[in-house]
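README: folding subset

This subset contains proteins for which both the sequence and a predicted structure token string are available. Records are stored as plain text. Below is the entry for DUF1440 domain-containing protein (157 residues), shown exactly as it appears on disk.
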Amino acid sequence: MRSLLTTALIGVGAGLAASFVMNRFQDVAAPAFGMDGGNDDPSTVKAADTISEAVEGRPVMQKHRAAAGSALHYALGAAIGGGYALVVRRWPRTAEGLGAPVGLATMLLLDDLLVPAAGWGPWPKAEAAGNLYGLSSHLVFGMSLEGARRAGEALPG
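--- output ---
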């Protein structure tokens, strides 16, 4: 059996891959769901501002805002991936949903609860297009995470 560190690193890599796949899905799907992005900063940029204000006493500089938001998105995906891989190692049945449960949990806990509670975005509304877009994006994340985790676990060593 692999070490805990190796399992976690496989999960981190899977989380990075899943974050990339989710971003590409959103690039393609956003117009189909009527998501134009609006003029408001994404929640990841707002969260990066919160971190920057706590560390440096000021928000992220304008020229670094997009990169900071993207870095936070990938860091969160990596952390979720590492944690997920360790959970699956301990409780293998966790992976039976092919990643869909972790995608759904990510949407509910982060997008629908943490983001609005922290003031980084609005509370969920009863609008079908936005909810389906969020759900499908996070299902893509979760299923990509599980697929990449399985691929990593299948590697020799």
